[in-house]
Amino acid sequence: MWQLTRDDLDTLAIGASLLGSGGGGQPYWFRALALHAFGDRVSITIHDAAELPADMLAVSTGLVGSLLAFHERSPQGSEFARAVERVRREYPDANACVCNYESAGANIFAALVVAAAGVLPVVDSDGMGRALSWLDQTTFDVAGISIAPFVCTDSYGRTVLYEDVRGRSAEQFIRAAAVDMGGWCAFAGYPMTIAALRTAGIPGSIRRALDLGRTVENAAARGVVEALVDEHGARRVAAGRVMDARWRRIEDGGIGSVVLRASGDASVVRIEARNEFLLVLVDGEMTACTPEIICLMRTRDGRPLQAESVLAVGTEVDVVALPAPLLWGQPGFRDKVVPAAFGITGV
Amino acid sequence: MSEAGRSTVRDVLCLPEMTEAEVLGGAVGLDRVALDAHIVAPALVRQVESGSVVFLTSTESLGTEIALPRLAEREAAAVIVDHEVLVSTQWLADRFGIPLVRMAEDRWETALAVRIHLRHPLVDRGLKCAAAAARLSGADTPSRVAAVVSGVLGHPVGVLGPSGVLLAGSRPPGVDALPAALAGHLDTDFGTTVFVSTAPGRDSGTRLTCVVQAPVGLAAAHVETILAVAELAIVRLGAWAARSSLTAAWDQAGQGALLTHLLTTGSLDGPRAEQAVALGWQLEGFHIAVMVRPEDPSADRSSVLTALQNALVATGLAVPAVPWSDGWVWWTSSPSRPTQTQVTLRSNEVRQIVADLSGYRIAAGVAGAEYGLSGLVRAIGDATRLCRIAGHAAGRRHVETSSDSNPRQYLLTAVTDDEARQRAELLLQPLLTATDSALLDTLTVYLLCECSTAAAARRLGVHRNSVIKRLARIQTLLGADLDDDDTRLALRIACRAL
């Protein structure tokens, strides 16, 4: 167990952006929501799964839908707590805690908002350990944890409970609900015991995000990459100037490419993105790919860039790859997040 | 093309099936030798053989970019895709020096065509010949023939007439250096010039040449293919020349018959008037008529006519040259009576035409201006008579005009025209064939000297008795009495006409 103070929220946002791998959304509003939820609290307690009773119920939460809509239609603040509470009602005799299904990008704050409201304790374990595109791309799903019963709720209090829905069809129902609810909704689901969470979840992502954020904040502007390499095992993939960037919206997000000319040997660097950065080609050879966490850092200040915001030709960037959460490297899990899972074959 | 005469990527891009192809990158590798063509899925690029033109089945830029390093490693000749690529893919093609080509057409058909071109030149030749033959059947002009051949072969094509005059297509550089052979190819700095010509006198009246400008160093098999297609083209061009010649002859015959009818009857009835209008004849107003004829009756009339028509066009006269007698007639018409200056101008135009055609020894007569249809008949008749007076012999003018000819010349014409010459030859035949060639000269001088044997002897430089003996011999050969006045007059005219 450890304490996350309200002063850590900005640092956490930076780290969450790194784990977002170019996706996950800008955490600005969610951070503000978390700050509001903190109220007079100085800190909240973050539990490790190992510390909690094995039979305790863990409910995952997070935002689904469009972050743009989330920014335009500000939340009341209680959506996530209501969603979690509704799932919990399905298990009236259980002690419960809350966790994120995606501790990266904006969603890293979802469980914190619920915990800061005093509803439930928060456990630092999630189903992605980074940002990924779809709700069924969770280690929970691969491990056989049912997403149902799950709940979608919006700022008007409208709440929908889904039962006996799993996998890709669950994703489709949730996406439809998000559209019907104005572009985004609060999600709560994947109810499981702490015992299950210990094996099916990726532990310590909030802690990792905070540590990454501190590294970025503490490093000199042009020393961020080196600090990430030294302190977090990051891999330097390429560095150069953006020469071309394409981005187009698709039904469930965006898809694009960024082309760099490497500063040293003028190698041709191409980064493919589908909501998140998926792979890096240097001179046609793949040098990094999911589930590694590929980050584009603006060289001048060492800040991570969102995939859809890399449009300025001439921007000097560093490409680094943070190690993937270990669980994604396990047999059976890896297939869910390799480039082929995103429709990219032949690499 | 490579020095070994193999096809290169550049050659492949010249194929007609690839006219819309766009080189996106790797242009430095366009001279890579291309040995074969393959349709390849991105997953199988590691199996590509060296020198292959790879038609990649990938439909997006990323797949192409991933395949490029592997294809470069396998020394593929070129990569053909059907989609847009990012600048990174273009740079990568540049970096590896492997041509990256985009084309929107059906690439699989193109892949087949490229493979046949590279691996099966005989089949390629057969296909191209078949395509050319099918399309040439509808090509009835040199320009269409050039377009068909260019479309089939994918190279610039020119059709040259006599003296290398460009009839259709584009004029290949260095074409002036073509040898006299009927077919062959010539390697120049500009490329390989493949040519096939008609045989003058056999295929057509004049030499026609189909010239194909191919890239430098073309493979021998492909030169043969071009030659085969050009042979088909030249057959078609020969047919065009023969048909055009026949058509022209038919038109000439039709016009000649119409003019004969006009000059013999002095009028044109309904259908013939309609024909005259259709031929563009001017029948109203004041007419200045011109007749020209080659002095040499054995001259090639078609050549003279072609040269005459070219000269008329060059002079700015848009009139038909209508065949008449042993020459051609044309006339110019104006609604008001031409001034003397205008008549002189017309005469000078004719003199210029005759001068331009000096090689054919043309004589011409110019007459007019006469009004109306009957005036046209008179003008043509006068021009015909004046044309008989004109000539290239000493004392004659090349062009006689009604304004500067005199009665003596009319009279002279009466005794020196072709008919008079023929009659004279008939009359004097015994003397012309006699072993003593002095007999004809003696008779001529004797008649010129008013039948004085003494004067004739002095003029001939012989003794009077020789003249007397020769005259006796002449009388015997001709069977004529030289003391008879009429006989002497007839013989005098005959001697003058020769």
Summarize this entry quickly.
The complex is a heterodimer of chains A (347) and B (498). With 347 residues, chain A is α+β, with helices and mostly antiparallel strands.
Give descriptors for this structure:
heterodimer, A: 347 residues, seven-stranded antiparallel β-sheet, five-stranded mixed β-sheet, 10 helices, globular, B: 498 residues, alpha/beta, 18 helices, elongated
Mass-distribution shape of chain A: globular
Question: What fraction strand of chain B?
Answer: 15-25%
Rg for CA atoms of chain A: 19 Å
The tally of helices of chain B reads: 18
Give me the count of strands of chain B: 15
**What share of the residues of chain B lie within helices?**
40-55%
Major β-sheet profile of chain B: 5 strands, mixed
Helix and strand sequence of chain A: EHHEEHHEHEEHEEHEHEHHEEEEEEE
Structural class of chain B: alpha/beta
Low-confidence stretches of chain A: none
Strand order within the widest beta sheet of chain A: 15-14-13-12-11-17-16
- On the 0 to 100 scale, the average pLDDT of chain A is 92
What are the SSEs and their pairings?
The complex is a heterodimer of chains A (347) and B (498).
Chain A: E1 2-5, H1 9-19, H2 28-38, E2 43-47, E3 57-65, H3 67-72, H4 79-88, E4 96-100, H5 110-116, E5 122-123, E6 125-126, H6 139-142, E7 150-153, E8 159-162, H7 167-180, E9 184-193, H8 194-200, E10 202-203, H9 205-218, H10 224-232, E11 235-250, E12 253-262, E13 268-274, E14 276-282, E15 285-289, E16 293-298, E17 316-322
Parallel strand pairs in A: 2-5, 3-4
Antiparallel strand pairs in A: 1-2, 3-9, 6-10, 7-8, 7-9, 11-12, 11-17, 12-13, 13-14, 14-15, 16-17
Helix pairs in contact in A: 1-9, 2-5, 9-10
Chain B: H1 9-13, E1 22-25, E2 36-40, E3 52-56, H2 61-73, E4 78-81, H3 87-96, E5 100-102, H4 107-119, H5 121-136, H6 142-153, E6 157-160, E7 166-169, E8 183-188, E9 191-197, E10 209-214, H7 220-265, H8 270-278, E11 286-294, H9 301-315, E12 322-324, E13 327-334, H10 340-356, E14 362-371, H11 372-389, E15 399-401, H12 407-416, H13 418-427, H14 429-433, H15 438-448, H16 453-460, H17 464-478, H18 485-497
Parallel strand pairs in B: 2-3, 3-4, 4-5, 14-15
Antiparallel strand pairs in B: 1-5, 6-7, 6-10, 8-9, 9-10, 11-13, 11-14, 12-13
Helix pairs in contact in B: 2-3, 4-5, 5-6, 5-7, 6-7, 9-10, 11-12, 13-18, 15-16, 15-17, 15-18, 16-17
